[in-house]
Amino acid sequence: MSLKMPLPDQRVLARRDEIITTLRRIVPGEGVIDQPHELRPFESDGLTAYRQPPMVVVLPETVEQVATILAYCHKNNVKVVPRGSGTSLSGGALPLADAVLLGMGKFNRVLEVDYEDRLAVVQPGVTNLAITKAVEGEGFYYAPDPSSQIACSIGGNVAENSGGVHCLKYGLTTNNVLGVEFVTMEGEILRIGGKALDAPGLDLLGIIVGSEGLLGVVTEVTVRILPKPETARALLIGFPTVESAGQCVADTIAAGIIPAGMEMMDRPAIHAAEAFVKVGYPLDVEALLIVELDGPGAECDHLIGEVEAIARKNGAVTLRASRDEAERLAFWAGRKAAFPAVGRLSPDYYCMDGTIPRGKLPRVLQRMNELSAHYGLGVANVFHAGDGNLHPLILYDANKPGELERAEDFGADILRLCVEVGGVLTGEHGVGVEKRDLMPDMFSEGDLRQQQRLKCAFDPELLLNPGKVFPSLHRCAELGRMHVHRGQLPFPELPRF
């Protein structure tokens, strides 16, 4: 592993047997995993370049068990790494050698569906796609749809503020979550937000969504569900250059058209996806756009004509509109399968995640080609073109000495480029460990300290998911703050000024 993580606390490791015994009392039966060969499946998340077996895995089934585990770990100074389905692509669920890995996979029930208020209450282990499956019989669906939606959990989506192909029109996770049940590191069970459209007071929900497991553990999520559009049609548009496809994206948005989804793939990704799913993608183009319009039938027909005209003006060489629902889903099948499809091109790939202004797309793609030549590594591009969220897939072979390190350097240069052109380090995968050491490229020291003060307000002992997000985490006392718990300051006998 080329990545540096916090050194294990040997005092905690010396108490491993005692910790395991206590966890077994809290979660009886098969809820505690401690044998080395059984820990292997938990040693990494979707960012498989980095691996570290956890000290122990615990799989609670009730909120009370979660609260008891966290309270015990807080009292005994034991670190905790929350984990959903383990599909994180930023190393957000990477275990620590001296930490309890808190797996939320058994929280997998849809608790309530309220069609009148258009919401569902679900446990965090419910998969993204399972929410839609639970409500589609009544004509509803859950809008955010990451490519991993068949496997990723809604709790992980909340942690990373996940997006998907339909986030351009319908928003990311943060725009579709109304409330959460949340357990602090001290074992307090809180409810933040709820079924109402908006909650009074500070926007703590906006802080929790995207907090990457640094502030607490989500044990229940209230999400917004939407009625299925009357009509949805997709356009498959091929371009002779990536630049012309990028300009088509910019012109479409500039015309006031907000598609439900707007995705782009370059030639390597197109060929990989077509070989994998065989849906009829054109193979003689340099870039492919998938543009979906939804709404009333007459509106869709009108907008399809508008987008077709914009595409032809930008030199489109192929253009197909879906004739029925099966063909629309086929168009998306290749895009949804693009990540595993690219796995056929190389033994390993490194999936990046950065966001740029749409108008900078041609410049960024040109520079990525130059970086590809510089590092001697191929790259396939799959991204949410409508909102500028890039997903370059850097191709490498981990068995060849130095290639992983070159892939890391290549990826870091791409992310620096995103910031340089006015974008940000991440769009939906989170910071995790992957982008942690690049945070100073985007934030000043003052910015980072202020973010860490927020971390200290929720987790003053820095026990939740340490080693993630912040390149160097200061002790809370060094940041000039003091934790207030249940209205009580520590050391109350000392005078205050």
Topology:
Elements: H1 10-14, H2 16-26, E1 32-33, H3 36-39, E2 56-58, H4 63-75, E3 79-83, E4 99-103, E5 110-114, E6 119-122, H5 128-135, E7 140-141, H6 154-160, H7 167-170, E8 177-183, E9 189-193, H8 204-208, E10 217-224, E11 226-227, E12 231-239, H9 242-254, E13 261-266, H10 267-277, E14 287-295, H11 297-313, E15 318-321, H12 325-336, H13 338-342, E16 348-351, E17 354-355, H14 361-375, E18 379-384, E19 389-396, H15 403-420, H16 439-442, H17 445-458
Parallel strand pairs: 2-4, 3-4
Antiparallel strand pairs: 1-2, 5-6, 6-10, 7-11, 8-9, 8-10, 12-14, 12-15, 13-14, 13-18, 16-19, 17-19, 18-19
Would you mind describing this structure in some detail?
By secondary structure, the protein is an alpha+beta fold. Helices cover 33% and strands 19% of the residues. It has 17 helices and 19 strands. Helix 9 runs antiparallel to helix 14 and helix 14 packs antiparallel against helix 15. Keywords: FAD, Flavoprotein, Oxidoreductase.
Short description:
The chain has 17 helices and 19 strands.
Query: Structural class given helices, strands, pairing?
Result: alpha+beta
**What's the total helix number?**
17
**Mean of residue pLDDT?**
93
CATH architecture of the largest domain: 2-Layer Sandwich
Helix content: 25-40%
